[in-house]
Design a protein that fits this description.
Helices cover about 5% and strands about 50% of the residues. It is mainly beta.
Length: about 160
C-alpha cells in the first residue's frame, strides 16, 4: 500500500490553495485520479461545470494517443474551494485544448492546475484561462508545459 503524501505550500502546484478547505478532505482524496486514455486518432470533448456548495477536488490524468485530440472546457463557479487538476501526456501529433473560466464572489478560491507533457514530436497544446472575481474571492491558474528532449517540432501556448 502506497502512503499518500499530503500537499504543503512548498509544493509549487499547491502554493495558492486554500489549506483550511483542504483539511476537510479525507487523505485518500488526494490519491484519487480519474484516468482517461484516448486511442490513436480519437477525438473527445468534455465540458465541466464546477459549482458545488462545498469544497471540490477533481484530479484527471489524460493520455492522448498518436494523432488524437482532447478538448476540455471548465467553468469553476463554486461557493467554496474548487480545484481542477489535469495532467496530460501527448503522443506524436496529438493535441490538447483547455479553456477555463473561474468566476464568483465571496471568499472562495477557485483554481485550475495543468501539467502538459509533450512526450513525443509534433504535438500541440493550447490553454486559455480567464478569471472574474469580486469580494475576497480568487481565481488561480498554474500551468506547466514540459517538452521531452527528443520531442521536436512541438507547439504549446498558455494564455
Amino acid at each position: 500500500m502506497n502512503a499518500i503524501t499530503l500537499p504543503t505550500k512548498r509544493d509549487e502546484e499547491w502554493r495558492y490553495a486554500d489549506f483550511a478547505a483542504l483539511e476537510t478532505f479525507a487523505p485518500e482524496a488526494f490519491g484519487q485520479w480519474k484516468e482517461i486514455e484516448l486511442a490513436p486518432g480519437e477525438t473527445r470533448r468534455k465540458c465541466l461545470v464546477l459549482d458545488g456548495s462545498g469544497p471540490e477536488l477533481h484530479r484527471v490524468r489524460l493520455t492522448v494517443g498518436e494523432g488524437a485530440r482532447a478538448e476540455m472546457f471548465a467553468v469553476s463557479a463554486g461557493a467554496d474551494y474548487t480545484r481542477l487538476e489535469v495532467v496530460v501526456r501527448l503522443a506524436r501529433g496529438a493535441h490538447f485544448e483547455f479553456g477555463g473560466v473561474t468566476i464568483g464572489g465571496g471568499e472562495a478560491t477557485r483554481e485550475f492546475v495543468s501539467r502538459v507533457e509533450h512526450a513525443e514530436p509534433e504535438a500541440t497544446s493550447h490553454q486559455v484561462v480567464r478569471a472574474v472575481h469580486w469580494g475576497q474571492a480568487t481565481g488561480n491558474f498554474l500551468g506547466r508545459i514540459e517538452v521531452a528532449r527528443d520531442a521536436q517540432k512541438n507547439d504549446a501556448a498558455q494564455d
